[in-house]
Amino acid sequence: MNFYVLTLFPEMIRQCLSASITGRALEKGILQLKTVDIRDFSENKHNRVDDYPYGGGAGMVMAPGPVVRACRSIQGRIEIESQKVPRVIYLTPQGKVFDQTMAEELSKEENLIFLCGHYEGIDERALELIVTDNVSIGDYVLTGGELPSMVMMDAISRLVPGVLNNETSAEFETFQDNLLEYPQYTRPEEFEGKKVPEVLLSGHHARIEDWRREQSLKRTQENRPDMLEKAALTEKDKKFLQTLE
């Protein structure tokens, strides 16, 4: 998986992704990261990339020229090497909300370009020319697209084969089958008066799987009932949920 990030703060991206699991995957070559400083594509002697908005208003807007030139410098190379037009993801509160299904879809791509805006946003003409996907990580406004891009790359990376030590970890966790994950426990068996559920100590794998499924259903019902509408529920699941009501 090759990540390309168009940003005004390349060091911010590199420092974050070079740590922990993504850092190890970068060292092994499983992931590739290239940050592109949009300022390098400014034609202004001061490397300025923003200007006042037409029509007035507060703040500044990123000009289309540097953004488009920065993106095309990457797009052209990818298209020659892979014979495929790469997806360009613009991080914006106006986009489709990022979720696990989207992460799984994007993890199948060979190359992904992330465009991080700043100030009051990016000139609309640039977005029309280069962006393929508008994506949001939630209904709130951040100072730029760097944090959302890192959230997306982290979620996508763990689905790339070889990134996680335990290949099943990415499959059986929160949002699997549109359900929240069951509670996890480790040693000691008792901590400050709270004990590990007996079923987890039984060694009876079928009972443990049943318990975990029920806990996932219960947690989803309590915390994210909206997810149950899309969950893949069996008749047994539905009967258990009825007992909770």
Could you provide a short overview of the structure?
The protein is an alpha/beta fold and 245 residues long.
Helices and strands, with pairings:
Blueprint: E1 2-7, H1 10-17, H2 20-28, E2 32-37, E3 50-51, E4 61-62, H3 64-82, E5 87-97, H4 100-106, E6 111-115, H5 124-130, E7 133-136, H6 146-157, E8 190-191, E9 194-195, H7 198-201, H8 205-223, H9 235-244
Parallel strand pairs: 1-2, 1-6, 5-6, 5-7
Antiparallel strand pairs: 3-4, 8-9
Helix pairs in contact: 1-6, 3-5, 8-9
Biggest pleated-sheet summary: 5 strands, parallel
Extended strand count: 9
N to C succession of SSEs: EHHEEEHEHEHEHEEHHH
General shape: elongated
List keywords for this structure.
9 strands, 245 residues, alpha/beta, 16% strand
Notes on the protein architecture:
Helix content is 39%, strand content 16%. It has 245 residues and is an alpha/beta fold. It has a 5-stranded parallel sheet with strand order 2-1-6-5-7, with helices on both faces. The protein has a two-stranded antiparallel sheet with strand order 3-4. A two-stranded antiparallel sheet has the order 8-9. It is elongated and about 70 Å long. The mean pLDDT is 94.
